[in-house]
Write a structure and sequence with these properties.
single chain; mainly alpha; Serine Threonine Protein Phosphatase 5, Tetratricopeptide repeat; two-stranded antiparallel ribbon; 74% helix; elongated; cytoplasm; PTN23 phosphatase; BRO1_dom; ALIX_V_dom; ProQ/FinO
């Protein structure tokens, strides 16, 4: 019987002639309904909608449609668990629970959302969700940073309670940094979210400022690095509520009771739970090993793709090639820059010479004026000098001030040009010279051997990861395809009657999916059926056991790699610095040309003004000289006429000598 449905994200019609597909769709919609009811309810309960999705993931094939893939269902489960843990976190904060407990609950929220983010980053998930994948990922990342900030806020409060004031500062600072990241990611979120972020910023910001001030002025404790403190381990306090599709309390009366005996349905459900137990046990071991492996690899900071980046030194980076290509079609770049700066220097020198000449003329005129005043000290004051000189002096001072300011800029411009000129010549030259100018590492044969050994072990780590994922996928597919209904229908009903085995599990037990364990005869049937998984379990156990030896070998290889790593890091830093310097020189060229042109325009204008001022200065100085000459002649005429005497000394000088003494004699000489 065809069962048509529509995929939730793509809108595509999907039809399967399989009643299990219909049941899977109903379970999916049940989980969606629970999530909607949870969103509408007050946040006072940690019950969540993950149960339906978990049952769907563990008991049904993932090949029916893409919205029932393992990644999508894992995304849904972790989103539901994360929101349920949020409710519990809010309740614990309102109940004023201990800071350390609140921090652990908040850290677990972060862990759930990190798992959801990993599912969102999966390529299949991204292609399926389309645009909403980016929105969901941004929101989940915002929540990760926000609840990490809440966790560190309460770790800081715990440090405060323990009077560890240095730790308090670093926890509050970390909370503030993470909250700032959350605020960046919260753009476009509703006003209620923005208001919550602002409130949290007031709390954390106030805590940090107060803690830092107290530590700086009172306690003076050393502030440790955050990575030296013990990480906050999450406390998972929520769980997926069990869903049993064969429970009449959930589904109502079995409408197909006459087709397949209910006992067979119940026995099949019990077997499904046995398979789910097996899967949970295996997954618990895998996840524990994966967590250790992830933490170990994070601490080592070894990326197999960049552990040796020797290949990059054999090529000129694209950004530098682009600059070289741009300069190759402009061969006159350096010449134009040098010429422009030479022209600027020439105009600068001309202006300086003109202003110096004006200043010399003014100083000479002032000297002559002082000398005349000294000579005429006993004579009544003379009329003032021509007004043109004062204006010239004022304008000269203004131009000298402009010139002095521009001179500093001109000097800086020349310094910048000299700094970039060599790099521009290099970029405009042959590519071989550019490549030769870039640093390259020099490794010995032993160093190369160390590198090869490390790469080989990293490849082993990746191989171990890939094999583990493959075995897990095989196990899941094998469990999903394992259907023993046919065997159960032919089994005696008395052997399948539920309740003849062990007593029911206590309330709240996550494994309590059925009223009782299977009876002994049915249990033997299940054990026989479950033996088909033994070989796969052996392979998984071997894979997990090999991890310890692989990580030990990686640790030893990393110790030997330390010196090589340091040398490569130093060369890479020099390489990046050199590339950035060359790129900066190219990008500075246009700016240098622009500023050079502006300098030429400024000095050309100033040169014209200085030339005109020089002409005015010369004319004013000549007028001042003529004024002094007139004054001198006027003073000479005021002297009394000389008495007739012997014509030995010159008549004028003798008269002046008799009339005015030494001063008059000096006037005559002048």
């Amino acid at each position: 019987v065809p069962s048509p449905r529509t995929e939730i994200f793509s809108g595509k019609a999907v039809t399967h002639e399989d009643i299990k597909y219909e049941q899977a769709c109903v379970l999916y919609n049940l989980g969606a309904l629970h999530s909607m009811l949870g969103a509408m309810d007050k946040r006072v309960s940690e019950e969540c909608a993950a149960g339906a999705f978990t049952y769907l993931r563990d008991h049904f094939p993932h090949s029916y449609s893409v919205d029932m893939s393992h990644q999508i269902l894992s995304l849904n489960i972790n989103l539901m668990l994360g929101q349920a843990q949020e409710c519990l976190l809010e309740k614990s904060m309102l109940d004023n629970r201990k800071s350390f407990l609140v921090a652990r609950i908040s850290a677990q929220v972060v862990d759930y959302y990190k798992e959801a983010c990993r599912a969102l980053e999966n390529s299949e998930t991204a292609s399926l969700l389309g645009k909403i994948q980016k929105d969901w990922k941004k929101l989940v990342q915002m929540k990760i940073y926000y609840f990490a900030a809440v966790a560190h806020l309460h770790m800081g409060k715990q440090a405060e309670e323990q009077q560890k004031f240095g730790e308090r500062v670093i926890y509050f600072q970390s909370a503030l940094d993470k909250l700032n990241e959350a605020i960046k990611l919260a753009k476009g979120q509703p006003e209620t979210v923005q208001e919550a972020l602002r409130f949290t910023m007031d709390v954390i910001g106030g805590k940090y400022n107060s803690a830092k001030k107290d530590n700086d002025f009172i306690y003076h404790e050393a502030v440790p690095a955050l990575d030296t403190l013990q990480s906050v381990k999450g406390a998972p306090l929520v769980k997926a509520l069990p869903v049993n599709p064969t429970d009449p309390a959930v589904t109502g009366p079995d409408i197909f009771a006459k087709l397949v005996p209910m006992a067979a349905h119940e026995a099949s459900s019990l077997y499904s739970e046995e398979k789910a137990k097996l899967l949970r046990d295996v997954m618990a071991k895998i996840e524990a090993k994966n967590e250790v492996l992830d933490q170990f690899m994070d601490s080592m900071q070894l990326d197999p793709e960049t552990v040796d980046n020797l290949d990059m030194y054999n090529h000129i980076p694209p950004v530098l090639m682009e600059k070289c290509a741009a300069l190759s079609v402009r061969p006159d770049t350096v010449r134009n820059l040098v010429h422009s700066m030479q022209v600027l220097s020439g105009v600068f020198t001309d202006v300086e010479a003109s202003l110096k000449e004006i200043r010399d003329l003014l100083e000479e005129d002032e000297a002559q004026e002082r000398k005349l005043q000294e000579l005429l000290g006993r004579v009544p004051p003379a009329p003032a000098s021509p007004p043109g000189l004062a204006e010239v002096s004022k304008e000269c001072s203004k131009y000298l001030e402009l010139h002095e300011k521009a001179s500093f800029t001109n000097t800086e411009l020349h310094r910048a040009m000299n700094l970039h000129l060599g790099n521009l010549r290099l970029l405009g030259g042959p590519l071989e010279q550019v490549r030769a100018a870039l640093p390259t590492p020099t490794l010995s044969e032993d160093d190369k051997q160390v590198l090869q050994n490390l790469k080989r072990i990293l490849a082993k780590v990746q191989e171990m990861r890939d094999q583990r994922v493959s075995l897990e996928q095989q196990l899941r597919e094998m469990i999903q395809k394992d259907d023993i209904t046919t065997s159960l229908v032919t089994t005696d009903r008395s052997e399948m009657k539920v309740g003849l085995g062990t007593p029911p599990c206590p309330p709240g037990d996550p494994l309590a999916h059925s009223p009782a364990d299977p009876p002994v005869s049915l249990q033997k049937l299940f054990e026989e059926q479950l033996k088909k998984y033994d070989q796969l379990k052996v392979y998984l156990e071997q894979n997990l056991a090999a991890q310890e030896n692989v990580l030990k070998a990686l640790t030893d290889a990393n110790v030997k790699y330390a010196a090589v790593r340091k040398a490569l890091a130093e060369v890479e830093h020099k390489w990046n610095t050199t590339v950035q310097t060359l790129v900066a020189s190219y990008e500075a060229y246009e700016d240098l040309m622009k500023k050079s042109q502006e300098g030429k325009d400024f000095y050309t204008d100033l040169e014209g003004k200085a030339a005109k001022l020089l002409e005015r200065a010369r004319a004013a100085c000549q007028a001042s000289e003529a004024h002094r000459q007139q004054l001198l002649e006027r003073e000479l005429k005021k002297q009394p006429p000389p008495r007739p005497t012997a014509p030995k000394p010159p008549l004028q000088k003798k008269a002046l000598d008799e009339a005015g003494g030494p001063e008059a004699a000096e006037l005559g000489s002048l």
